[in-house]
C-alpha cells in the first residue's frame, strides 16, 4: 500500500469460504508488514472492518438470486 507515493505497508491475505448449513462462513487471514510507522495494525484492522461491513450490507440488500 502506498500513501502519496510512499510505500507504507504490504500484506498477503487469504480468504476461505466454508459452507455452514444454508450459509457461508468466510475466514480472512492477513499477514502484514508495516514500514517506517506510516501504517499500523489498528489502522489496517479498521479499514478491513469497514470494507467487510460494507460487503455485508451489500449482500444483505442484494436482490434474491444475485448473491
What features would you highlight for this structure?
4 strands; two-stranded antiparallel sheet; alpha+beta; 31% helix
Task: Give a quick summary of the entry.
The protein has 67 residues and is of the alpha+beta class.
Helix/strand/pairing class, anyone? alpha+beta
Which outline best applies? elongated
| End-to-end separation | 29 Å
Share of residues in helices: 25-40%
Q: How much is the average pLDDT?
A: 91
Order of helices and strands: EEEEH
Q: Strand sequence of the main sheet, in spatial order? A: 1-2
- Number of self-contained structural domains: 1
How many strand elements?
A: 4
Count of runs of 4 or more consecutive helical residues: 1
Name the beta content range: 35-45%
Structural Rg: 15 Å
Give unreliable regions as ranges.
Answer: none
| Biggest sheet layout | 2 strands, antiparallel
Give an overview of the whole structure.
By secondary structure, this protein is α+β, with helices and mostly antiparallel strands. The chain is 31% helix and 42% strand. The chain has 1 helix and 4 strands.
Outline the fold blueprint.
Layout: E1 2-3, E2 6-7, E3 9-20, E4 23-34, H1 41-61
Antiparallel strand pairs: 1-2, 3-4
Amino acid at each position: 500500500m502506498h500513501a502519496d507515493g510512499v510505500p507504507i505497508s504490504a500484506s498477503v491475505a487469504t480468504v476461505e469460504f466454508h459452507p455452514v448449513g444454508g450459509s457461508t462462513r468466510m475466514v480472512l487471514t492477513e499477514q502484514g508488514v508495516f514500514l517506517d510507522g506510516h501504517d499500523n495494525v489498528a489502522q489496517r484492522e479498521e479499514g478491513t472492518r469497514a470494507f467487510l461491513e460494507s460487503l455485508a450490507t451489500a449482500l444483505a440488500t442484494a436482490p434474491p438470486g444475485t448473491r
